Structures are given as structure tokens and as C-alpha cells.
């Protein structure tokens, strides 16, 4: 039986159940938080436990949290939350950047001032095989990003490190992409060049597009389409997001679609009240409470919903 790593230990992949494939718990700059933010650790953890417990009550069993370097990953805080909820939490390794690599990698690597094998690969493998820092928590998947800026040298270096790590370890990948510039196609090319299996790749934020030709090209290459920003209606209205998923199901692509919100309990990128006003449905509950009923109204069958929520995430991990 294939196993998948969670924050509280390994489980059989069959135990993942209904899975949201792209949900953060906390997104923040820890340096900023320590110096400038008003932060009540106890209250933030209690709020996260409450939100994730509500999600359990809606029938979700697992979330994948792709918070990596560049997004404020801090596993001890997530551990404290995981100990208080039944929900499975899967965490990632990788680097989140739209431009340059972090300064810790600027001068070390192949052909650089300190010429050595790619250090990011070694760090990613450690997170996957031994655990993150001294927590004992092993990453379950890999994460990288390519935004509107495209394949900058830094983005390419991270992406190739992620692809090479996946090829060595078999770990699946989630990629943040910019649908309007079709950067998912670039990600597929680069990852495949490094030996990654595209059938184990989620092209994240594909749900920001209604371009069926683009989405079908990604799916035909074997990857999963991350229809994973439900609630971010400021980027694409709810009706268009739901219509696109329903049309993909109608066209026979149900087995290539996965769902999520890209939501978080707390994110320091935006003022909290402004975020709630601009995107009132951007929360963990939106898919269960609003999206699934809307899909059913459009003729998507319960078996197809099970495929998107249960079967596809399980297959992403080799189940």
C-alpha cells in the first residue's frame, strides 16, 4: 500500500479521502511578523483549529498545504494545529519565487562562486526523506512557481531543482502558474526536461482561466488541472469558474481536475478587513457549501465530484 506523509505521520494513500489540493494555513513573512506585526500566537492557532474543524464537518478529510520557502513555512506552528484536528495536513518543500532565488542560493551551485551540486535539490530531498528542520515532519510533495514574469533565471533554477528532485524521489509536484500567460505549458516543458513525471504534476491556478484549449493541452500532456482558487472572484467570477469545471467534466476531463481555494487562516499580504470585503467567499468552506451544489446544477454527477475530490488527489500520490 502506498503511503503519504502527513504532519502527524504517514497514512495509507487510501485514507486521504476528500482532499483539497491547495490550501495554506498561514502565509506570512516571518521576519516582518517578528518586527512589525501584531500577532497573538494562541489566538491564531485557536482560529486555525476552528476553521479546519469546520472543514472536517463539511466532509473534507485532507488538505495539501504548499507553503514553502518564500511563503513563511513554520512547521512547529502547523504541528500544534494538526494535533488538535482530525484533518490530515500534507506539507510541501520547495521555493516560492517569481524572480530570483533566495540569497542563500545566489552564490552556491553549479558554475557559481561556490561551485557545487545544486544545494536546493539536497535540501528538498532532506525535507522529503528525513524531515523538515528538527520537527520529524516529512514533506509530502514539491512546490515551485512561475508567474507573469515568466521563466526568469531564478524561476528556472528552482523549477529544475524541483523537477530533478521529483525524478529522484518520485514525489509529486504542485506548480503555481499564471494562466493568462499560459505559463503552465512552460512549467510542463521544464519539469519534463528534468525527468519529472507530468502525470504527477498539478498545474496550479488553472482555474483562473476559461480558455478550454489551453486547459485541455495541459491535461492532454498528463497533468492535473488545479481548479484551486474558488472564492477569488476578483480574479475570475464564480459563475465562470464553475462553468469551466462543468465543461471540462462534460468533455471527459474529470480525471484530470482537482479542486481547492488557495485560501488561508491568515495571510499578511493584504489588510484582513480589505481582503474579506474584496473576496468574501475566499475561505475553506466555499467549495463544499457553494461550488459543489452549483456543479450539480450544471449536470456534474456525484461520481465525478468523488473523482475530483478523492480519486485524483490519491492518484497524484501514486495511489
UniProtKB/TrEMBL annotation:
Taxonomic lineage is: Bacteria, Bacillati, Actinomycetota, Actinomycetes, Micrococcales
Query: Which residues does the record give as Zn(2+) 1 binding sites?
Result: 22, 24, 143, 262
Tell me the keywords, alphabetical order: Hydrolase, Metal-binding
Binding note for cofactor: Binds 2 divalent metal cations per subunit.
Cofactor(s) this protein requires: a divalent metal cation
Q: Does the keyword Acyltransferase apply?
A: no
> Does the keyword field hold Metal-binding?
yes
Domain of life (superkingdom): Bacteria
Family stated for the protein in its record = Belongs to the metallo-dependent hydrolases superfamily. Phosphotriesterase family.
Q: Which organism is it from?
A: Dermacoccus nishinomiyaensis
N6-carboxylysine is carried by which residues?
143
So where does Zn(2+) 2 get bound?
143, 176, 205
**This protein's name:** Phosphotriesterase
PROSITE patterns named among the record's database cross-references: PHOSPHOTRIESTERASE_1, PHOSPHOTRIESTERASE_2
Task: Give a GO molecular function annotation for the protein.
Answer: zinc ion binding
Amino acid at each position: 500500500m502506498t503511503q503519504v506523509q502527513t504532519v502527524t505521520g504517514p497514512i495509507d494513500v487510501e485514507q486521504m479521502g476528500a482532499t483539497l489540493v491547495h490550501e495554506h494555513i498561514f502565509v506570512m513573512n516571518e521576519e516582518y511578523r517578528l518586527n512589525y506585526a501584531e500577532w497573538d500566537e494562541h489566538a491564531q492557532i485557536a482560529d486555525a483549529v476552528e476553521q479546519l474543524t469546520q472543514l472536517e464537518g463539511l466532509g473534507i478529510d485532507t488538505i495539501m498545504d504548499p507553503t514553502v520557502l518564500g511563503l513563511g513555512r513554520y512547521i512547529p506552528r502547523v504541528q500544534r494545529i494538526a494535533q488538535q484536528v482530525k484533518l490530515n495536513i500534507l506539507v510541501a518543500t520547495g521555493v516560492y519565487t517569481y524572480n530570483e532565488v533566495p540569497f542563500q542560493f545566489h552564490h552556491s551551485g553549479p558554475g557559481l562562486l561556490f561551485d557545487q551540486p545544486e544545494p536546493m535539490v539536497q535540501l528538498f530531498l532532506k525535507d522529503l526523506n528525513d524531515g523538515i528542520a528538527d520537527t520529524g515532519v516529512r514533506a509530502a510533495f514539491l512546490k515551485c512557481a512561475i508567474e507573469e514574469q515568466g521563466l526568469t533565471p531564478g524561476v528556472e533554477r528552482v523549477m529544475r531543482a524541483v523537477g530533478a528532485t521529483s525524478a529522484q524521489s518520485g514525489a509529486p509536484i504542485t506548480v503555481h502558474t499564471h494562466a493568462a500567460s499560459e505559463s503552465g505549458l512552460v512549467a510542463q516543458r521544464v519539469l519534463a526536461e528534468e525527468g519529472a513525471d507530468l502525470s504527477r504534476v498539478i498545474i496550479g491556478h488553472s482555474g483562473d482561466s476559461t480558455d478550454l484549449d489551453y486547459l485541455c493541452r495541459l491535461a492532454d500532456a498528463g497533468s492535473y488541472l488545479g481548479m484551486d482558487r474558488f472564492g477569488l472572484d476578483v480574479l475570475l467570477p464564480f459563475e465562470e469558474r464553475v462553468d469551466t469545471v462543468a465543461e471540462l467534466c462534460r468533455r471527459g476531463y474529470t480525471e484530470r481536475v482537482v479542486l481547492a481555494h488557495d485560501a488561508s487562516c491568515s495571510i499578511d499580504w493584504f489588510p484582513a478587513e480589505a481582503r474579506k470585503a474584496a473576496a468574501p467567499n475566499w475561505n475553506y468552506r466555499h467549495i463544499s457549501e457553494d461550488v459543489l451544489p452549483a456543479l450539480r446544477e450544471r449536470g456534474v454527477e456525484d461520481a465525478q465530484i468523488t473523482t475530483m475530490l478523492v480519486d485524483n488527489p490519491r492518484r497524484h500520490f501514486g495511489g
